[in-house]
C-alpha cells in the first residue's frame, strides 16, 4: 500500500465533503488513524450490500456464513483470518463465541459459532504466487434466500477492463470514481479513514471490534495446536456489529 497516495486521497475527500483532520498510518501491515484500527472490509461496497440484505428482509433467518480468502505467499494468515472473522460477526450481527480450526502450512480452515447460533466456515490460504492479486468470497445462506458477493461459480473476481500485452495482462476495476488510481485495498482503507473522521464510524466500536476479531483469530490457531475447540466469553457492552452509515455523496 502506498501511504502517501492514500493520504492524498483522504485529504481530497476531507476537502470536498468536510471531516476533521487526521491521517492514515501503517503498523504491522494494518492501517490506523491515530490509535484506531481501520476496518476496511466493512466499507467495501459488496459487504455493504450484503449487510443491507440481512437487515431489509431480503434474507430471512440467516443460518450459515461461508467465507474464503486467498492471498500471495508471505501474507499474514492470522491477520487475514481476523479480517474474515470480523466480517462474520458484522454480517451475522453477533459476536463469535466458539472457534475450531485445522491449519496446514500456509492454509487454515475454521469453523465458528456466533452467539445468535449462526454457523460460520472460513477458508484461508496464502499460497498464491508472489505478485498475484488475492481474492475472496462471502456467501450468506438463510432460511429464505442466499446471497454472495461473487458471481455464482466464479473463482476469480471479474475486472471491468482487461488489457492483453506482450508482458501479460493488466486488469482495471473502477470501484470508486473519486479515488481512481488507488488499488482496491487502498480505496477501502481511505474510505474507512474518511468514515471515522466524519464520525459515521466510531473509534470506540472499531477498537473493540478489532480486539474481538484478533482474539478469535489467535484462539483459532491455538485450537489447531491443541486439537480442541475454543470458547470465547461474550461480555455485555458495546454492539460492535451495527451497520455503518454510508456517506451522502460518493
Protein model, in words:
A hairpin with a 2-residue loop joins β2 (30-33) and β3. With 250 residues, this protein is an alpha+beta fold. α3 (77-92) packs across α5 (203-226). The chain is globular, with a radius of gyration of 18 Å. The strands form three sheets. It has a seven-stranded mixed beta sheet with strand order 9-8-4-7-6-5-12, with helices on one face. Strands 1-2-3 form a three-stranded antiparallel beta sheet. A two-stranded antiparallel ribbon has the order 10-11. It has a single domain (3-231), classed as Dihydrodipicolinate Reductase, domain 2 (2-Layer Sandwich), CATH 3.30.360.10. It has five helices and twelve strands.
Number of helices: 5
Tell me the overall shape.
globular
Helix content: 25-40%
Question: Spatial order of the strands in the main sheet?
Answer: 9-8-4-7-6-5-12
Arithmetic mean of pLDDT: 90
Architecture (CATH level 2) name: 2-Layer Sandwich
CATH topology: Dihydrodipicolinate Reductase, domain 2
What is the β-strand count?
12
Going by CATH, the homologous superfamily would be Dihydrodipicolinate Reductase, domain 2
The CATH class is Alpha Beta
N-to-C span? 22 Å
User: What is Rg?
Assistant: 18 Å
Major β-sheet profile: 7 strands, mixed
Characterize the quaternary organization of these chains: single chain
Structural class: alpha+beta
Low-confidence runs of at least 5 consecutive residues: none
Instruction: Work out the strand percent.
Output: 25-35%
- List SSEs in N-to-C order: HEEEHEHEEEEEEEHHE
Tell me the domain tally.
Answer: 1
